[in-house]
Amino acid sequence: MQTPQAIPVPVPVLRLPRGPDGFSRGFAPGGRRALLRPEAPVAQKGPGQDSLESQEQQARAALRERYLRSLLAMVGHPVSFTLHEGVHVTAHFGATDLDVANFYVSQLQTPIGVQAEALLRCSDIISYTFKL
Amino acid sequence: MAMRQTPLTCSGHTRPVVDLAFSGITPYGYFLISACKDGKPMLRQGDTGDWIGTFLGHKGAVWGATLNKDATKAATAAADFTAKVWDAVSGDELMTLAHKHIVKSVDFTQDSNYLLTGGQDKLLRIYDLNKPEAEPKEISGHTSGIKKALWCSEDKQILSADDKTVRLWDHATMTEVKSLNFNMSVSSMEYIPEGEILVITYGRSIAFHSAVSLEPIKSFEAPATINSASLHPEKEFLVAGGEDFKLYKYDYNSGEELESYKGHFGPIHCVRFSPDGELYASGSEDGTLRLWQTVVGKTYGLWKCVLPEEDSGELAKPKMGFPETTEEELEEIASENSDSIYSSTPEVKA
Fold first, then answer.
1. In this predicted model, what pLDDT tens digit does every residue of A102-116 receive, in sequence order?
2. Cα–Cα distance between B193 and B110 in angstroms, integer?
């Protein structure tokens, strides 16, 4: 097969431009212009309050991570749920959605029978327990 | 080897991008700000298009955005009847300047001490940024909403464009010096300090005037209605974009159309050359910014041109998912899966 003549080759690129991270407004301290940032915080907060806030944020992040890992550990295990009006049900845990608004379960044992697949609304659940 | 332009698409905005501006060249490179109808102007690294941050605070579409020369401050003009000044390093809002109608244009003086604003209330306002509480100086005279207001002649004069006129004002006396009338709507205006050139677009025309006398220098006609045009810093090329979604590149001296590029999915609202002239950025109704190389195939920013001798075939190989695969392994895989068409032993045909 003859090589076609002079098909223009697109200019190669190292990567695409990075877009917004989707959760912050940016201006990260580690950027090119980190040296230009004033040492003292510009806002009304003093340095003591600043570290308290960051400590709280770190604690929140750690707790969130633990909770997400607990959900991962539950997958496939039997879980007993305490619902409103003193109702207790057990089921095999499948997954939750992004906002933890619904629990997807299978083999849900209800007072009126066993449901093969079901979605439990988080707002209906008071508590749940499972054995590791 | 002929090379084809690879535009770099900067995503992030959710509505049309209506204005963009570059900073000057700073020790940290140069920066780009984009104004968007989603109310969230964004700051990007100029040579790569990487997002740096979003200025949050406006409650309406942002119609105009600018950076000061060293990219330490940003200013934005919005439909919420305010202009805002921002710290472009931290992203914090520094000042909110209340107006009586939609603000369309903002411009810093060279020393960043004053901000010029213009908008639908038909007034030009000059704010002293060192005295934010003081009332701005006002210049009236426009009979329709101001679309663009720029400092010129070393901040001694002001250029402003409304729907059908471009006016030149003296800063010290706050009076009109000269004006130009058009019978078509003026879509954009750019001021080039070196050479005192004014680039004006209206209809399908791209016109160049002296910024000092407003006398016409030359003009070109494009194939479609043009919304914005920009002149290269060395005045070799100009780029323009408009309603047919395409970008056009012309030789400034001869007026010859050199290249045209498709890529955007909507009308182009703004085009600007970078301060070093190596690339130009376009903002479109499709919500994206695209960066284009002035010299296609040159290694710059994220564009990496590899010559045939240098290229060991790396760019052709799939990089993702095969980090450990050596060249020999790839060839083995290819031969295992290959058809007789690709085998090296020639087949004898009957």
1. 999 999 999 899 999
2. 11
What are the tens digits of pLDDT across the range B163-194? 999 999 999 999 999 999 999 999 999 999 99
**B320 confidence band (pLDDT: 50, 70, 90):** very low
Task: For tokens 């700000």, name the residue.
Answer: B33
Pairwise CA distance, residues B248 & B265, whole Å: 15
Contact B117, B101 (CB under 8 A): no
Q: Which residues of B have a CB under 8 Å from any CB of A?
A: 1-6, 8-12, 28-29, 42-45, 48-56, 72, 87, 89-92, 291, 293, 296-297, 302-306, 315
Of B146, B142, B167, B147, nearest in space to B157 by CA:
B167
User: How many Å apart are CA A39 and CA A47, to the nearest integer?
Assistant: 11
Among B38, B104, B46, B51, which Cα is nearest to B75's? B104
Q: Which residues pair with B77 in a beta bridge?
A: B64, B83
CA neighbours closer than 13 Å in the CB half-sphere of residue B238: 30
Is there a contact between A17 and B50 if contact means CB atoms under 8 Å apart?
Answer: yes
**SS3 state of residue B209:** strand
Pairing outcome for strands A9-10 and B3-4: parallel
Helix (H, G, I), strand (E, B) or coil at B19: strand
